[in-house]
Amino acid sequence: MQSHDLLEHVRSVFVRMTRYPDEVVVADADLEQDLGIDSVKRGEILATLRADFGLPDALKATPDELRTVASVSDFLSRTISARPGAAPRNGDAGGGGHAEAARHANGHGEAARHAGYANGHGEPARHASGHAEPAGYANGHVEPARHANGHAEPARHANGHVEPARYANGHAEPARHANGHAEPARHANGHVEPARYANGHVEPARYANGHAEPARHAPAARAALAGKTVLVTGSSRGLGRAIATKLGRAGARVVVNSFHSRDDGEAVADEICAAGGDAVHVWGSVANVAHIDKLFETIERDVGELHHFVNNASNGRFGPLEQTTPEHWELAFRTNVIGYHQCALRAARLMERRGGGRIVALSSNGSSRYLEHFGAMGAVKAAVESLTRALAVELAPRNVQVNCVSAGPIYGHVTSNYPDHERILPYWESRTPGGRLCTEEDVADAVLLLLSDGARMINGATLTVDGGGSLCI
After folding, report:
1. 61 or 186: which carries more pLDDT confidence?
2. So what family is this one in (predicted)?
3. Do residues 428 and 471 touch, judged by C-beta distance below 8 A?
């Protein structure tokens, strides 16, 4: 097999298995930094390539041999040279015939809620009727065509109509509670939330039914961001996911963004829609300016507006400063500071068209005090807070308010992966008044607060949300 054909075959496998845009999977793309492919996904891709060429399962590669798409191809070329006759078992030397199928492996042409510029032609795969954006706007509803083929999310559209459960009766999502199937776990008394909806009053009994946090799912909370479109970067898991789902419940149309896991990002968008909200997913890294450009081009073209932006995406290394390399610093600043700056400028341009908007950045109370293993990230987050204050002043003429939420250690994804967390977590709890840390939901509530109308005169502020932990740590 010629080297060019081998490279194209390798590219086609990457595109098929990641569903990343073809134009992103270039020869010199770094698997981790440019494509967000972790060791698990690398292993899956290598296993597929081994099977394609009939290579032994025991074949291993070093990280350097799998650093870029081209290096993977070179590794295979060397391996195949030692095994005459090895060739792709599917007979597709170049992989070109699979490029489009690879990008739309779910068989449904990337339904409109998954807006990640997938086929290199302005996303026609998401608009299968041949018209411009029919999936999102043709019938007056928000992206009904996402569910019109009978396969995507059938549980929500089982009668063949477009989102009847959410809109058919003319009220805001009552159908989710009127058919006896949606959200039964939250209505254990056999009635359809009568205390909150049936009597025409707003949440008269939201604290009387013994369930946790009923007010978070109530009509008044839903109205907080009704008609607003919000981008939440890094929202496929952890705190970002909690923020995205919180804003979806508050009535916002959420642009979910992910980089390291497209599947997880799409799952969050699906979750928001399944709960009666509205969401789209756009893939891309905020550490890559080309990705940022494409992200906002996609929002402008396919979503059409942006009112608020939540800068949640983060990357960096936890550990002693002696073990922090220049590469660690560069990645952390490129993601947390440069990415924030570049996204904020592009978001502000779209917000200005709508009369203004809000930007909320996520930081940490480690920005102003010492936390073990957080030295490098503390410096990076201090830069985020400083940048927030500068943006607040410079974007004010556009009626864009910029604030920051500084969170302490929180229960959830990040804390569970923190170095030596089994020892450190109890210490943090012991130094926090009340003896417990915040949850991801607690921080998401603070973000919602800063996006609400009641925060219209808060600008350039850093809101600490740590249960008082920073007073004692």
Report:
1. 61
2. Belongs to the short-chain dehydrogenases/reductases (SDR) family.
3. no
